């Protein structure tokens, strides 16, 4: 897409974004009807505008009075160390403290996407798709059709990558399940869940270490199920 077309799209979105929330009632006709359950949706954004879209969508949820339908918004950014030619950490002076601190650069695990947990209604769909910087919603066929949510097994890796514990994922794990450790000392080790501790977001796992069984404790965010056909 050319810079000119991108600017036209952004200008169009900005214009829509200035609609007076008190004059808009996209949910008209839904009064009294049963709302769908909250779910996760993938929002397409323009390149390098993920964080800006996240912040703007949070503000618009308040201004359009739909904070009770739009919940978590995830921009999957992380800080990556900046290394010199010898692979050593570079340092830079902190402007506030004057101290030398590790130099990092902000990167995104999923460039061009943010993830929104919400209840999909006419109002939330209207607000999200007309947010400046949003170029589309994955799972929408167009022609006025609302998008489909992404399955839990697809959002779970995103949450775990961001070290976010989601109570909804607890129900997917049971004693006897074969799992894989994702990080830490025992990364890539496979074992069987022997105990589940929802109150602390942990599970006990029996793994084989040096030919002998051993019980270790791991966070939900650090495990994933082993595929049955593996």
In CATH, what is the class of the largest domain? Answer: Alpha Beta
Q: Would you identify the CATH H-level superfamily of the largest domain?
A: NusG, N-terminal domain
User: Per CATH, what is the topology of the largest domain?
Assistant: Alpha-Beta Plaits
Kindly name the structural category. Answer: alpha+beta
Main sheet makeup: 5 strands, antiparallel
- Numbering strands along the chain, what is their spatial order in the largest sheet? 12-11-10-9-13
Give the tally of structural domains. Answer: 2
Shape: flat
Q: Considering DSSP H and I runs of 4 or more, what fraction of the residues is helical?
A: 10-25%
Low-confidence stretches: 1-18
Q: Which percent band covers the strand fraction?
A: 25-35%
Mean pLDDT value? 82
Write a brief caption for the model.
This protein is α+β, with helices and mostly antiparallel strands and 230 residues long.
């Amino acid at each position: 897409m050319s810079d000119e077309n991108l600017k036209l799209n952004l200008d169009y979105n900005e214009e829509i974004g200035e609609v007076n929330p008190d004059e808009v009632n996209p949910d008209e006709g839904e009064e009294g009807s049963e709302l769908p359950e909250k779910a996760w949706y993938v929002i397409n954004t323009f390149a390098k505008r993920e964080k800006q879209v996240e912040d703007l969508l949070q503000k618009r949820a308040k201004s359009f009075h739909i904070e009770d339908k739009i919940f978590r918004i995830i921009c999957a950014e992380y800080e990556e160390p900046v290394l010199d030619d010898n692979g050593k950490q570079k340092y830079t002076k902190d402007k506030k403290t004057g101290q030398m601190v590790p130099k990092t650069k902000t990167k995104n695990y999923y460039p061009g996407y943010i993830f929104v947990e919400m209840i999909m209604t006419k109002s939330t769909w209207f607000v999200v798709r007309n947010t400046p910087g949003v170029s589309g919603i994955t799972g929408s066929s167009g022609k006025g059709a609302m998008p489909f949510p992404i399955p839990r097994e697809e959002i779970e890796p995103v949450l775990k990558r961001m070290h976010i514990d989601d109570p909804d994922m607890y129900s997917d794990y049971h004693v006897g399940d074969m799992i894989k450790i994702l990080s830490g000392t025992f990364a890539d080790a496979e074992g069987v869940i022997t105990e589940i501790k929802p109150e602390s977001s942990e599970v006990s796992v029996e793994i084989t270490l040096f030919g002998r069984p051993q019980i270790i404790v791991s966070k939900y965010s650090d495990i994933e199920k082993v595929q049955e056909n593996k």
